[in-house]
Design brief:
17% strand, 5-stranded mixed sheet, 18 helices, TATA-Binding Protein, isomerase, binds magnesium ion, 560 residues, globular, single chain, A-D-PHexomutase_a/b/a-I, binds 2-acetamido-2-deoxy-1-O-phosphono-alpha-D-glucopyranose, alpha/beta, Alpha-D-Glucose-1,6-Bisphosphate, Chain A, domain 3, magnesium
């Protein structure tokens, strides 16, 4: 590192002293904390993003958001050149950088890292970092701190994209690195045109919707609702009402949004008896999660949750069906030599009934630890990988090989079997590859795909919800002295350490028909999470609470 670079880093970092007595960690999805202590962390992640851009000679993204967390929190995450999450091998560097205690130590760490990674810092070629934020009031000044971090690396240029959904920023980073059009309007254009394409390909007779058959969307009082107001005007064949768009005075994620609806299984604020029988969905605070729900009757506040597992199942059914139409034996002379490998990726939080259903369809289902970075990585190993967390974060990945094959197939059909059923199936799958966000889970694009498929199938939300019946499940959080004492194995389904706990969980679980239970330390909160599933609500409650008690006994109650 040359002297100019060194003194630039020393002087800028002295303006961003780290908070005292706080240990920060990159966690499941970037740094998250109370916004008031994040200036220094965000500044430092700005430096990291600039280094990543120099190292990869590509555009990198920085998103300032704390997703579904409360409005006073904020956070920051990095989008890699592919548009996906920051490469996991850089996470330890993110941790050490965030926790460096003074400018000298910070510069020392950067110098060592730059040497190890063979990053040449001479500013010869400039690199770009796209910055965006959600609607949190703390976002503006944090974005400024990120800019300061970026411009502390000579040759790195920060481009402020303003307020965006998290998946839009990831999409933009990916598009720019592919040399494609990458503005927010381009994103909306791509979503609306591929949606239109799917709607135009609906078999006659199956789309029996009338104009009054609308979708009502809970925008979590965040960026998703605001953006959907723009996108919905570009859509044909779908009527959307946005509630909790943030303009009505409601507070971000407060009694609203996908996380609240999924965890509490109640209607978000602003929804009630007027919505009985209507298709409803909720976005989270940065619009990368989506769950649907049904308000069943005027007397109950509980909703019928149509969660990420069911969205995954709907996508899987549709894709499997289109693939089989595409691969039907034809008398036309088309080359059929490619067997597409379809993989479904879930976590242990997936409802057992969804896994059974998917397996019954003959699909390959794989499990990874919690956190989309793991699911995404796994899904990328298939020709078509569909992944979802139960909480509604997921997407579909298509391999380059499959995309080339599909394009070629489509061209072949256009020549020899134009307008045939296999040709339509190829066009539908191509439209799906354009509609779904290949970078990360995206509530807006996922929602449009759900809507297109429901119209295609001629299904109501109730019919969709009947694909299978969720097993009753319960989630609890337990405060313990040290959650890191729990080490899990087999995609977090068994406790490897401390000894004895797994045996006790097994003994408890065996008492319940269809019982399944696991515990793991949360990656985003200082708690142990307990998940239990059983054949009745009472049994799921009782299994969860007895295992929670057991966790207390074995690990001690936390003080905070
Ligand atoms: C049970 C649950 O919903 N866990 C969530 C939550 O992680 P934890 O490590 O469980 O705190 O936040 C993650 C980031 O948003 C998300 O990926 C994950 O699914
Ligand atoms: Mg989110």
């Amino acid at each position: 590192m040359n002297e100019d670079q060194r003194s630039l880093l020393l002087s800028s970092s002295s303006r961003f002293p780290p908070p005292q007595g706080v240990k920060l960690s990159y966690g499941t999805a970037g740094f998250r904390a109370d916004a008031s202590i994040l200036q220094s962390t965000v500044y430092r992640v700005g430096i990291l993003a600039a280094l990543r851009a120099v190292k990869t000679q590509s555009v990198i993204g920085l998103m300032i958001t704390a997703s579904h967390n409360k409005i006073s929190d904020n956070g920051i995450k990095v989008a890699d050149p592919s548009g996906g999450m920051l490469s996991q091998d850089w996470e330890p560097f993110a941790d050490t950088l965030a926790n460096a205690c003074d400018p000298q130590q910070l510069v020392q760490l950067i110098t060592e890292f730059v040497e190890n990674e063979k990053i040449t810092l001479n500013g010869a070629k400039s690199v770009e970092i796209l910055l965006a934020r959600d609607t949190r009031p703390s976002g503006e000044s944090l974005l400024e701190a990120a800019k300061q971090g970026i411009s502390s690396i000579i040759g790195a240029v920060a481009l402020d994209m303003g307020i965006l959904t998290t998946p839009t920023l990831h999409w933009m980073v990916r598009a720019r690195n592919k040399g494609a059009k990458a503005s927010e309007m381009d994103y909306f254009e791509q979503l609306s045109s591929s949606f239109r394409c799917l709607v135009d390909l609906i078999p006659s007779g199956s789309n029996t919707r009338n104009e009054a058959d609308k979708l009502v969307v809970d925008g979590a009082n965040g960026v998703g609702g605001e953006k959907l107001e723009i996108l919905k005007k570009m859509l044909t064949g779908l009527v959307i009402d946005v509630r909790n768009s943030g303009k009505e005075g409601g507070v971000l994620n407060d009694g609203v949004g996908a996380d609240y609806v999924q965890k509490e299984k109640v209607a978000p604020s602003g929804f009630g008896s007027q919505d009985v029988g209507i298709r409803c969905c909720s976005l989270d605070g940065d619009a990368d999660r989506l769950v649907y729900f049904i308000v069943p009757s005027t007397s109950s506040i509980k909703i019928e949750l149509v969660d990420g597992d069911k969205i995954l199942s709907l996508f899987a059914v549709f894709i499997k069906e289109q693939l089989s139409i595409l691969n039907k034996k034809r008398d036309v002379n088309v080359n059929d030599d490619y067997q597409c490998c379809l993989g479904i990726v879930q976590t242990a939080y997936a409802n057992g009934a969804s896994t059974d259903y998917l397996k019954q369809l003959g699909l390959e289902v794989i499990f990874t630890p919690t956190g989309v970075k793991y699911l995404h990585e796994k899904a990328a190993q298939y020709d078509i990988g569909i992944y979802f967390e139960a909480n509604g974060h997921g997407t579909i990945l298509f391999s380059e090989k499959f995309l080339c094959w599909l394009e070629a197939k489509n061209t072949e059909f256009s020549d020899v079997a134009k307008g045939s059923e296999p040709h339509k199936a190829a066009m539908r799958l191509l439209a799906v590859t354009k509609l779904i966000n290949p970078a990360v889970g995206d509530a807006l694009s996922g929602m449009l795909l759900v809507e297109a498929i429901l119209q295609h199938m001629g299904w109501s939300i109730e019919k969709w919800n009947e694909l299978y019946h969720d097993l009753p499940s319960r989630q609890l959080k337990v405060k313990v002295v040290d959650r890191t004492a729990v080490v899990t194995a087999n995609a977090e389904t068994v406790v490897a350490k401390p000894p004895g706990i797994q045996e006790a969980i097994n003994a408890e679980t065996a008492k319940y028909p269809r019982g399944r239970c696991f515990i793991r330390p949360s990656g985003t909160e200082d708690v142990i999470r307990v998940y239990a599933e059983a054949s009745t609500e009472n049994a799921a409650d009782s299994l969860a609470s007895s295992v929670a008690k057991l966790v207390h006994q074995k690990l001690g109650s936390g003080t905070s």
